[in-house]
Structure prediction request, 442 residues.
Amino acid sequence: MTPTDAQGLRLSLEAEGIHTLLVQFTDLQGVAKGKLLPLHQLETLLNEGAGFAGPSICGTGLGRTGARSEYYARGDASTLRALPWLPGVARIVGDGFVDGQPFDACPRQVLRRQVARLAERGWRLRLGIEPEFFLLRRDAATGHWGPADPTDRLDKPSYDLKALPRQLGFLQALRGALEDAGLTVLQLDHEDAHGQYEVNFAHDEALASCDHLMLFKLAAHTLAERAGCVFSMMPKPFANQPGSGLHFHVSLWPTDPGDSDALGDDELRPFMAGVLAHSAGLCALAAPTVNSYKRLVVGESLSGTSWAPAFVAHGPNNRSALLRTLPGRFEWRLPDASANPYLAAAGLIAAGLDGIDRRLDPGPACTDDLFDLPLAKIRARGIAPLPQSLAEACDALAADSVLATALGSTLQQQFLALKRDEALAYARHVSTWELERYAALF
Ligand code: GLU
Ligand code: MG
Prediction:
């Protein structure tokens, strides 16, 4: 950006009452990180970036000394938004740079690379990302976590209109904040677990949608704290309740501005086939915690119907399949609320492009309710289950060369090391369930 453009931008922000910039990036875990800078730093932020100690950021693999120890979050001017819940502060999303070059292991840069590969073929991907989340509170006396609203106790709480108004203060504050920050909020509802809600906002270009999700998380954390509760994107806080998905509604569009229609269902098929073919490796990116695999369960779950997919299948409006197809788009139901949206979206594009390159076919549509069909019948139809643990998903990711290329070797290694450690730490932990089951048994 030229000095004149940057100065013009600074003056217009000043006129809006902005005095502080919050530069935000997303670490490997999908957690928002950043720092505050006075507005006069705008030009430096846009041209060089704000500096951070590289090794202090999860997943960079950067050393402690030398030029490559410094991580720069370089502001993307198109993302500047005033944050209504922090008056005078505007958020700007940063892209990772190291030693003056785009940093290959920055999740947003990883997604940028895949978006560029799509654009080379004349396409762009639009995403509608649907966050489900819990509002929780921790009992000070017992230390137990539970819904922030203790009266939220219906057997089937989906769309419940008695519990919803009790959280209206938080939900309306969230909606107002997101709308004032430029997002189009479409709906808010009570989901199928106690203390669980969903907010939907309009679909957008892949990169922008991921930025919007991170903005939503920033707003929700702060506003929930102000309402005295904890905003949680843990995939499955309660074994006897459904978990939180982060479904991606996916459509492909031409980059040519003269051509305004989304690609049709037939053109989407090989892309979908690629997503199905790489679903085991994608699991690690889209369902990246040990807790994620309490959500993606094959067979009876303690929460009954979880609405989370467990099988690699696609079907028209089939919510029990991994891909629910709808006219002109499909819903990728794999991701859960703990996913780093940039990495999940980058993996999705790489998998879809591989399907196109290899002219894969997604096979026949599944019209069965897979939550009802006996496991033996599902297997007999050749429908594969998803990995059932983080360790299994990591092995599948390690074996997937298409996803490895998309992530780049630094990020792939960092991701696998982090996630395998997490799986190991979990495996070595002794839980209350084990004590209850075994302590007095033998
Ligand atoms: N909570 C479900 C999941 O974990 C999804 C419910 C729905 O279809 O909205 O994917
Ligand atoms: Mg939902």
